[in-house]
Amino acid sequence: MTTGGLVDRQIGFFGALREAGLSIALSEVLDATRALGVVDLLDREGLRAAYAATVLKRPAHRPAFDALFDLWFPPVVGDPSARSADADEDGPGEAGEDGPADKEALRGRLRDLLLEGDEEALRRFARETVRELGRADTAPGRQAWFSYRVLRGLSPETLMASLLEAMLAGQVRGGMAEKVARQTLSERIRSFSEMVESEVRRRLAEDRGPEALSRTAVQPLAEQVDFLRASRNDMAELRRQVFPLARRLATRLTARRRLGRSGRLDFRRTVRASLGTGGVPLVTHHRPHKPHKPELVVLCDVSGSVAGFAHFTLMLAYALSEQFTKVRAFAFIDTVDEVSRFFTPGVDVADALSRMSSEASLVWFDGHSDYGHSIEQFAARYPDAVGPRTSLLILGDARNNYRATAVPTLRALVQRSRHAYWLNPEPQAYWGSGDSATGAYGDVLEMVEVRNAVQLEAFVQRLLPT
Protein backbone atom coordinates (compact mmCIF):
# COMPACT_ATOMS: atom_id res chain seq x y z
CA MET A 1 0.00 0.00 0.00
CA THR A 2 1.39 3.41 -0.97
CA THR A 3 1.60 6.32 1.46
CA GLY A 4 -1.22 8.05 -0.43
CA GLY A 5 -3.39 4.95 -0.15
CA LEU A 6 -2.56 4.72 3.54
CA VAL A 7 -3.66 8.33 4.08
CA ASP A 8 -6.95 7.59 2.28
CA ARG A 9 -7.44 4.58 4.55
CA GLN A 10 -6.64 6.74 7.54
CA ILE A 11 -9.30 9.29 6.56
CA GLY A 12 -11.90 6.54 6.21
CA PHE A 13 -10.80 4.96 9.49
CA PHE A 14 -11.10 8.22 11.43
CA GLY A 15 -14.49 8.86 9.84
CA ALA A 16 -15.64 5.44 11.07
CA LEU A 17 -14.33 6.20 14.56
CA ARG A 18 -16.31 9.45 14.61
CA GLU A 19 -19.46 7.63 13.48
CA ALA A 20 -18.90 5.17 16.32
CA GLY A 21 -18.95 8.08 18.79
CA LEU A 22 -15.27 8.81 19.38
CA SER A 23 -14.33 12.48 19.44
CA ILE A 24 -11.37 13.15 17.13
CA ALA A 25 -10.17 16.70 16.58
CA LEU A 26 -8.44 17.95 13.44
CA SER A 27 -5.23 18.49 15.42
CA GLU A 28 -5.26 14.81 16.38
CA VAL A 29 -5.70 13.81 12.74
CA LEU A 30 -2.66 15.93 11.88
CA ASP A 31 -0.67 14.31 14.70
CA ALA A 32 -1.60 10.87 13.38
CA THR A 33 -0.54 11.86 9.86
CA ARG A 34 2.82 13.08 11.14
CA ALA A 35 3.23 9.76 12.96
CA LEU A 36 3.18 7.96 9.60
CA GLY A 37 6.59 9.49 8.92
CA VAL A 38 8.24 7.99 11.99
CA VAL A 39 6.74 4.48 12.20
CA ASP A 40 7.50 1.47 10.04
CA LEU A 41 4.48 1.25 7.73
CA LEU A 42 5.03 -2.51 7.42
CA ASP A 43 4.71 -2.90 11.19
CA ARG A 44 0.94 -3.19 11.61
CA GLU A 45 0.99 -3.25 15.42
CA GLY A 46 3.30 -0.23 15.47
CA LEU A 47 0.82 1.62 13.25
CA ARG A 48 -2.03 0.61 15.56
CA ALA A 49 -0.11 1.91 18.58
CA ALA A 50 0.70 5.20 16.83
CA TYR A 51 -2.95 5.82 15.92
CA ALA A 52 -4.11 4.86 19.43
CA ALA A 53 -1.58 7.21 21.04
CA THR A 54 -2.68 10.16 18.89
CA VAL A 55 -6.48 9.85 18.93
CA LEU A 56 -7.67 7.76 21.90
CA LYS A 57 -8.66 9.59 25.09
CA ARG A 58 -10.42 6.92 27.19
CA PRO A 59 -9.52 3.27 27.85
CA ALA A 60 -13.19 2.31 27.41
CA HIS A 61 -12.96 3.30 23.73
CA ARG A 62 -10.14 0.86 22.97
CA PRO A 63 -12.32 -2.15 21.96
CA ALA A 64 -14.21 -0.08 19.36
CA PHE A 65 -10.91 1.35 18.11
CA ASP A 66 -9.35 -2.11 17.72
CA ALA A 67 -12.38 -3.56 15.94
CA LEU A 68 -12.45 -0.72 13.40
CA PHE A 69 -8.66 -0.77 12.96
CA ASP A 70 -8.86 -4.47 12.03
CA LEU A 71 -11.48 -3.61 9.39
CA TRP A 72 -9.56 -0.77 7.80
CA PHE A 73 -6.05 -2.24 8.20
CA PRO A 74 -6.53 -6.04 7.97
CA PRO A 75 -3.64 -8.35 8.86
CA VAL A 76 -3.95 -10.24 5.56
CA VAL A 77 -5.66 -9.74 2.23
CA GLY A 78 -7.49 -12.43 0.28
CA ASP A 79 -7.41 -16.07 1.36
CA PRO A 80 -3.85 -16.95 2.45
CA SER A 81 -4.96 -20.22 4.06
CA ALA A 82 -6.38 -21.72 0.86
CA ARG A 83 -4.00 -24.36 -0.56
CA SER A 84 -1.04 -22.63 1.07
CA ALA A 85 2.04 -24.10 2.55
CA ASP A 86 0.66 -23.39 5.97
CA ALA A 87 -2.50 -25.34 5.23
CA ASP A 88 -0.54 -28.30 3.93
CA GLU A 89 1.68 -28.23 6.97
CA ASP A 90 -1.23 -28.19 9.35
CA GLY A 91 -2.32 -31.65 8.29
CA PRO A 92 -5.71 -33.19 7.45
CA GLY A 93 -9.04 -31.57 8.06
CA GLU A 94 -9.48 -29.12 5.21
CA ALA A 95 -12.24 -29.53 2.70
CA GLY A 96 -11.24 -31.03 -0.56
CA GLU A 97 -12.74 -30.50 -3.95
CA ASP A 98 -14.96 -33.53 -3.47
CA GLY A 99 -16.69 -32.85 -0.17
CA PRO A 100 -17.20 -30.80 2.96
CA ALA A 101 -14.69 -30.28 5.71
CA ASP A 102 -14.15 -33.07 8.23
CA LYS A 103 -15.45 -31.40 11.39
CA GLU A 104 -14.15 -34.09 13.72
CA ALA A 105 -10.65 -33.74 12.30
CA LEU A 106 -10.90 -29.97 12.71
CA ARG A 107 -12.06 -30.40 16.30
CA GLY A 108 -9.09 -32.64 16.96
CA ARG A 109 -6.69 -30.05 15.58
CA LEU A 110 -8.39 -27.33 17.61
CA ARG A 111 -7.97 -29.43 20.76
CA ASP A 112 -4.25 -29.84 20.08
CA LEU A 113 -3.81 -26.12 19.39
CA LEU A 114 -5.67 -25.14 22.55
CA LEU A 115 -3.39 -27.38 24.57
CA GLU A 116 -0.29 -25.91 22.95
CA GLY A 117 -1.46 -22.32 23.36
CA ASP A 118 0.35 -21.12 20.21
CA GLU A 119 -1.50 -17.89 19.44
CA GLU A 120 -0.23 -17.51 15.87
CA ALA A 121 -1.10 -21.11 15.03
CA LEU A 122 -4.59 -20.58 16.48
CA ARG A 123 -5.00 -17.47 14.31
CA ARG A 124 -4.01 -19.39 11.16
CA PHE A 125 -6.41 -22.16 12.13
CA ALA A 126 -9.21 -19.61 12.65
CA ARG A 127 -8.69 -18.33 9.10
CA GLU A 128 -8.80 -21.85 7.74
CA THR A 129 -11.95 -22.85 9.62
CA VAL A 130 -13.75 -19.69 8.54
CA ARG A 131 -12.92 -20.61 4.93
CA GLU A 132 -14.11 -24.19 5.45
CA LEU A 133 -17.16 -23.71 7.68
CA GLY A 134 -18.14 -20.06 7.73
CA ARG A 135 -19.26 -19.50 4.16
CA ALA A 136 -22.89 -19.71 3.09
CA ASP A 137 -24.63 -18.91 -0.17
CA THR A 138 -27.37 -16.43 0.76
CA ALA A 139 -28.50 -15.80 -2.83
CA PRO A 140 -27.56 -17.06 -6.30
CA GLY A 141 -24.05 -15.84 -7.00
CA ARG A 142 -23.70 -14.19 -3.59
CA GLN A 143 -22.02 -15.53 -0.48
CA ALA A 144 -21.76 -14.37 3.13
CA TRP A 145 -19.66 -15.31 6.13
CA PHE A 146 -20.94 -16.28 9.58
CA SER A 147 -18.97 -16.85 12.77
CA TYR A 148 -21.77 -18.85 14.39
CA ARG A 149 -21.44 -21.56 11.70
CA VAL A 150 -17.78 -22.03 12.63
CA LEU A 151 -18.28 -21.97 16.39
CA ARG A 152 -21.35 -24.20 16.21
CA GLY A 153 -19.49 -26.69 14.00
CA LEU A 154 -16.43 -26.86 16.24
CA SER A 155 -18.18 -26.32 19.62
CA PRO A 156 -14.92 -25.46 21.39
CA GLU A 157 -16.63 -25.24 24.81
CA THR A 158 -17.50 -28.96 24.65
CA LEU A 159 -13.77 -29.78 24.50
CA MET A 160 -13.20 -28.52 28.04
CA ALA A 161 -13.45 -31.91 29.75
CA SER A 162 -10.92 -33.63 27.48
CA LEU A 163 -8.65 -30.55 27.57
CA LEU A 164 -8.63 -30.56 31.39
CA GLU A 165 -7.93 -34.30 31.44
CA ALA A 166 -4.96 -33.86 29.09
CA MET A 167 -3.60 -30.79 30.87
CA LEU A 168 -3.95 -32.29 34.36
CA ALA A 169 -2.66 -35.76 33.50
CA GLY A 170 -1.26 -37.28 36.67
CA GLN A 171 -2.39 -34.39 38.91
CA VAL A 172 -5.07 -34.34 41.60
CA ARG A 173 -8.36 -32.94 40.28
CA GLY A 174 -10.41 -30.33 42.13
CA GLY A 175 -7.59 -28.24 43.56
CA MET A 176 -5.90 -25.01 42.59
CA ALA A 177 -4.23 -26.68 39.62
CA GLU A 178 -7.61 -27.49 38.06
CA LYS A 179 -8.87 -23.96 38.72
CA VAL A 180 -5.83 -22.43 37.00
CA ALA A 181 -6.06 -24.87 34.10
CA ARG A 182 -9.77 -24.21 33.61
CA GLN A 183 -9.20 -20.45 33.58
CA THR A 184 -6.30 -20.78 31.12
CA LEU A 185 -8.32 -22.95 28.76
CA SER A 186 -11.36 -20.67 29.00
CA GLU A 187 -9.22 -17.71 28.01
CA ARG A 188 -7.77 -19.61 25.05
CA ILE A 189 -11.25 -20.66 23.88
CA ARG A 190 -12.50 -17.09 24.18
CA SER A 191 -9.45 -15.84 22.29
CA PHE A 192 -10.10 -18.35 19.50
CA SER A 193 -13.74 -17.26 19.26
CA GLU A 194 -12.63 -13.64 18.94
CA MET A 195 -10.17 -14.64 16.21
CA VAL A 196 -12.99 -16.32 14.28
CA GLU A 197 -15.22 -13.27 14.62
CA SER A 198 -12.37 -10.99 13.54
CA GLU A 199 -11.68 -13.13 10.46
CA VAL A 200 -15.37 -13.11 9.52
CA ARG A 201 -15.44 -9.31 9.78
CA ARG A 202 -12.30 -9.12 7.63
CA ARG A 203 -13.82 -11.25 4.89
CA LEU A 204 -17.09 -9.32 4.97
CA ALA A 205 -15.14 -6.06 4.74
CA GLU A 206 -13.29 -7.36 1.69
CA ASP A 207 -16.56 -8.35 0.02
CA ARG A 208 -18.61 -5.26 0.88
CA GLY A 209 -16.03 -2.62 1.76
CA PRO A 210 -15.04 -1.44 5.25
CA GLU A 211 -17.34 1.59 5.03
CA ALA A 212 -20.49 -0.54 4.94
CA LEU A 213 -19.35 -2.86 7.72
CA SER A 214 -18.07 -0.14 10.06
CA ARG A 215 -21.63 0.92 10.89
CA THR A 216 -22.48 -2.47 12.38
CA ALA A 217 -19.08 -3.86 13.39
CA VAL A 218 -18.95 -2.22 16.82
CA GLN A 219 -21.51 -1.91 19.55
CA PRO A 220 -22.46 1.59 20.71
CA LEU A 221 -20.15 3.02 23.32
CA ALA A 222 -21.44 2.62 26.86
CA GLU A 223 -22.02 6.35 27.24
CA GLN A 224 -24.18 6.35 24.09
CA VAL A 225 -26.48 3.48 25.10
CA ASP A 226 -30.01 4.59 25.94
CA PHE A 227 -30.70 4.21 29.65
CA LEU A 228 -34.06 2.58 28.95
CA ARG A 229 -32.52 0.01 26.60
CA ALA A 230 -29.32 -0.67 28.51
CA SER A 231 -28.54 -4.26 29.39
CA ARG A 232 -27.21 -5.35 32.77
CA ASN A 233 -23.64 -5.26 31.37
CA ASP A 234 -24.21 -1.79 29.89
CA MET A 235 -25.40 -0.43 33.24
CA ALA A 236 -22.47 -2.06 35.04
CA GLU A 237 -20.08 -0.34 32.62
CA LEU A 238 -21.89 2.97 33.08
CA ARG A 239 -21.56 2.69 36.86
CA ARG A 240 -17.84 2.09 36.45
CA GLN A 241 -17.66 5.32 34.45
CA VAL A 242 -19.41 7.46 37.07
CA PHE A 243 -16.34 8.54 39.01
CA PRO A 244 -14.06 9.13 35.98
CA LEU A 245 -16.91 11.19 34.49
CA ALA A 246 -17.29 13.14 37.73
CA ARG A 247 -13.55 13.85 37.81
CA ARG A 248 -13.61 15.14 34.22
CA LEU A 249 -16.57 17.38 34.94
CA ALA A 250 -15.04 18.72 38.15
CA THR A 251 -11.72 19.41 36.40
CA ARG A 252 -13.44 21.28 33.56
CA LEU A 253 -15.50 23.28 36.03
CA THR A 254 -12.41 24.23 38.03
CA ALA A 255 -10.63 25.37 34.87
CA ARG A 256 -13.65 27.39 33.74
CA ARG A 257 -13.86 29.05 37.13
CA ARG A 258 -10.14 29.83 37.14
CA LEU A 259 -10.29 31.35 33.65
CA GLY A 260 -13.72 32.89 34.10
CA ARG A 261 -14.54 36.54 34.35
CA SER A 262 -13.51 38.58 37.39
CA GLY A 263 -15.96 39.78 40.00
CA ARG A 264 -17.50 43.23 40.35
CA LEU A 265 -15.43 46.37 39.68
CA ASP A 266 -13.36 47.49 42.68
CA PHE A 267 -13.92 51.25 42.28
CA ARG A 268 -11.57 52.32 45.05
CA ARG A 269 -8.54 50.36 43.81
CA THR A 270 -9.20 51.45 40.23
CA VAL A 271 -9.23 55.16 41.23
CA ARG A 272 -6.05 54.78 43.25
CA ALA A 273 -4.27 53.12 40.35
CA SER A 274 -5.42 55.89 37.99
CA LEU A 275 -3.52 58.54 40.04
CA GLY A 276 -0.29 57.26 38.56
CA THR A 277 -1.57 57.89 35.03
CA GLY A 278 -2.96 61.37 35.51
CA GLY A 279 -6.39 60.21 36.61
CA VAL A 280 -6.93 58.04 33.52
CA PRO A 281 -8.01 54.50 34.58
CA LEU A 282 -5.86 52.55 32.14
CA VAL A 283 -6.10 49.45 34.34
CA THR A 284 -9.28 48.37 36.09
CA HIS A 285 -9.32 46.28 39.24
CA HIS A 286 -12.04 43.82 40.16
CA ARG A 287 -13.09 42.03 43.30
CA PRO A 288 -12.39 38.27 43.44
CA HIS A 289 -15.06 36.27 41.64
CA LYS A 290 -16.82 33.93 44.06
CA PRO A 291 -18.80 31.37 42.09
CA HIS A 292 -22.13 30.40 43.58
CA LYS A 293 -22.46 26.83 44.80
CA PRO A 294 -26.09 25.75 44.63
CA GLU A 295 -27.91 23.27 46.77
CA LEU A 296 -29.10 20.24 44.85
CA VAL A 297 -32.31 18.32 45.45
CA VAL A 298 -32.91 15.22 43.33
CA LEU A 299 -36.40 13.72 43.21
CA CYS A 300 -36.31 10.50 41.19
CA ASP A 301 -38.67 7.81 40.00
CA VAL A 302 -37.03 4.43 40.70
CA SER A 303 -39.75 2.20 39.28
CA GLY A 304 -39.27 -0.31 36.49
CA SER A 305 -36.85 0.39 33.65
CA VAL A 306 -36.39 4.02 34.74
CA ALA A 307 -34.54 2.78 37.84
CA GLY A 308 -31.25 2.32 35.95
CA PHE A 309 -31.30 5.94 34.78
CA ALA A 310 -32.20 7.19 38.28
CA HIS A 311 -29.47 5.12 39.94
CA PHE A 312 -26.80 6.31 37.51
CA THR A 313 -27.82 9.96 37.93
CA LEU A 314 -27.87 9.63 41.74
CA MET A 315 -24.38 8.16 41.66
CA LEU A 316 -23.16 11.02 39.48
CA ALA A 317 -24.80 13.63 41.72
CA TYR A 318 -23.08 12.24 44.80
CA ALA A 319 -19.77 11.89 42.97
CA LEU A 320 -20.04 15.63 42.24
CA SER A 321 -21.25 16.54 45.74
CA GLU A 322 -18.21 18.78 46.36
CA GLN A 323 -19.49 21.08 43.62
CA PHE A 324 -22.69 21.72 45.60
CA THR A 325 -23.29 23.23 49.03
CA LYS A 326 -25.63 20.37 49.90
CA VAL A 327 -27.10 17.37 48.10
CA ARG A 328 -30.39 15.77 49.16
CA ALA A 329 -31.92 12.83 47.34
CA PHE A 330 -35.53 11.63 47.37
CA ALA A 331 -36.85 8.53 45.62
CA PHE A 332 -40.40 7.49 44.86
CA ILE A 333 -42.59 4.94 43.16
CA ASP A 334 -46.09 5.81 44.37
CA THR A 335 -44.88 7.59 47.53
CA VAL A 336 -41.67 9.36 48.43
CA ASP A 337 -38.87 8.84 50.94
CA GLU A 338 -35.60 10.69 51.52
CA VAL A 339 -32.68 8.42 50.63
CA SER A 340 -29.81 10.81 51.46
CA ARG A 341 -29.06 8.70 54.55
CA PHE A 342 -27.84 5.88 52.33
CA PHE A 343 -25.20 8.07 50.67
CA THR A 344 -23.01 9.08 53.62
CA PRO A 345 -19.37 10.07 52.88
CA GLY A 346 -17.15 7.11 52.13
CA VAL A 347 -19.96 4.64 51.57
CA ASP A 348 -19.80 2.29 48.59
CA VAL A 349 -22.34 3.66 46.14
CA ALA A 350 -23.39 0.23 44.89
CA ASP A 351 -24.14 -0.81 48.48
CA ALA A 352 -26.05 2.44 49.01
CA LEU A 353 -28.22 1.74 45.98
CA SER A 354 -28.87 -1.81 47.17
CA ARG A 355 -29.87 -0.58 50.64
CA MET A 356 -32.07 2.12 49.14
CA SER A 357 -33.97 -0.45 47.07
CA SER A 358 -34.61 -2.72 50.05
CA GLU A 359 -34.99 -0.31 53.00
CA ALA A 360 -36.55 2.90 51.64
CA SER A 361 -40.32 3.32 51.94
CA LEU A 362 -41.30 3.88 48.31
CA VAL A 363 -44.60 1.98 47.92
CA TRP A 364 -47.87 3.29 49.34
CA PHE A 365 -50.70 1.66 47.39
CA ASP A 366 -49.98 -0.66 44.47
CA GLY A 367 -46.34 -0.09 43.52
CA HIS A 368 -47.12 1.59 40.18
CA SER A 369 -45.74 5.04 39.39
CA ASP A 370 -47.84 7.83 40.91
CA TYR A 371 -46.18 11.17 40.30
CA GLY A 372 -49.06 13.20 41.68
CA HIS A 373 -49.19 11.49 45.08
CA SER A 374 -45.40 11.48 45.34
CA ILE A 375 -45.14 15.22 44.60
CA GLU A 376 -47.87 16.00 47.13
CA GLN A 377 -46.14 13.89 49.79
CA PHE A 378 -42.77 15.46 49.02
CA ALA A 379 -44.15 18.97 49.49
CA ALA A 380 -45.99 18.05 52.68
CA ARG A 381 -43.29 15.96 54.41
CA TYR A 382 -40.21 17.96 53.37
CA PRO A 383 -41.29 21.63 53.24
CA ASP A 384 -37.73 22.86 53.86
CA ALA A 385 -36.14 20.83 51.04
CA VAL A 386 -36.59 23.43 48.27
CA GLY A 387 -35.54 27.03 48.81
CA PRO A 388 -34.22 30.03 46.87
CA ARG A 389 -30.71 28.50 46.55
CA THR A 390 -31.94 25.06 45.44
CA SER A 391 -31.54 23.49 42.05
CA LEU A 392 -34.39 20.97 41.81
CA LEU A 393 -33.97 17.96 39.52
CA ILE A 394 -36.84 15.59 38.83
CA LEU A 395 -35.89 12.33 37.12
CA GLY A 396 -38.44 10.15 35.39
CA ASP A 397 -40.36 9.38 32.22
CA ALA A 398 -43.54 11.14 33.51
CA ARG A 399 -45.66 8.07 32.76
CA ASN A 400 -48.25 8.46 35.49
CA ASN A 401 -50.71 5.60 34.81
CA TYR A 402 -53.44 8.20 34.09
CA ARG A 403 -53.39 9.39 37.71
CA ALA A 404 -53.53 12.92 39.15
CA THR A 405 -50.51 15.07 38.30
CA ALA A 406 -50.42 17.54 41.26
CA VAL A 407 -49.38 20.32 38.88
CA PRO A 408 -50.28 23.19 41.29
CA THR A 409 -48.05 21.71 44.00
CA LEU A 410 -45.21 21.21 41.54
CA ARG A 411 -45.58 24.80 40.31
CA ALA A 412 -45.23 26.09 43.88
CA LEU A 413 -42.05 24.04 44.35
CA VAL A 414 -40.59 25.35 41.08
CA GLN A 415 -41.36 28.95 42.02
CA ARG A 416 -39.53 28.52 45.35
CA SER A 417 -36.41 27.05 43.74
CA ARG A 418 -33.51 28.80 42.06
CA HIS A 419 -33.59 26.42 39.07
CA ALA A 420 -35.81 23.47 38.25
CA TYR A 421 -35.39 20.86 35.52
CA TRP A 422 -37.05 17.60 34.61
CA LEU A 423 -34.72 14.99 33.10
CA ASN A 424 -36.60 12.51 30.94
CA PRO A 425 -34.83 9.36 29.63
CA GLU A 426 -37.51 8.71 27.01
CA PRO A 427 -36.98 9.90 23.41
CA GLN A 428 -38.79 13.18 22.90
CA ALA A 429 -40.84 11.65 20.08
CA TYR A 430 -42.64 9.51 22.69
CA TRP A 431 -43.54 12.38 25.01
CA GLY A 432 -47.27 12.90 25.38
CA SER A 433 -48.20 9.44 24.10
CA GLY A 434 -50.31 7.03 26.13
CA ASP A 435 -50.16 7.74 29.87
CA SER A 436 -47.31 10.25 29.52
CA ALA A 437 -47.94 13.48 31.45
CA THR A 438 -45.04 15.37 29.87
CA GLY A 439 -47.41 18.00 28.46
CA ALA A 440 -48.75 18.97 31.88
CA TYR A 441 -45.35 18.93 33.58
CA GLY A 442 -43.56 20.58 30.66
CA ASP A 443 -45.72 23.68 31.12
CA VAL A 444 -44.39 24.06 34.69
CA LEU A 445 -40.64 23.50 34.27
CA GLU A 446 -38.14 22.82 31.51
CA MET A 447 -38.09 19.17 30.46
CA VAL A 448 -34.77 17.93 29.06
CA GLU A 449 -34.27 14.74 27.09
CA VAL A 450 -31.43 12.77 28.73
CA ARG A 451 -31.30 9.36 27.11
CA ASN A 452 -27.63 8.51 27.63
CA ALA A 453 -24.52 9.45 29.56
CA VAL A 454 -23.33 11.86 26.87
CA GLN A 455 -26.50 13.94 27.16
CA LEU A 456 -26.34 13.74 30.96
CA GLU A 457 -22.75 15.00 30.96
CA ALA A 458 -23.76 17.96 28.77
CA PHE A 459 -26.65 18.77 31.12
CA VAL A 460 -24.49 18.60 34.27
CA GLN A 461 -22.02 21.06 32.74
CA ARG A 462 -24.94 23.36 32.08
CA LEU A 463 -26.29 22.91 35.63
CA LEU A 464 -23.04 23.65 37.43
CA PRO A 465 -22.33 27.41 37.48
CA THR A 466 -19.03 28.97 36.46
Automatic annotation (TrEMBL):
Residues 87-99 have a biased composition (Acidic residues). Signal peptide: none annotated. It holds the Pfam family VWA_CoxE. Residues 81-103 are annotated as: Disordered. InterPro entries: UCP010256, Uncharacterised_CoxE. This is Carbon monoxide oxidation accessory protein CoxE. It comes from uncultured Frankineae bacterium.
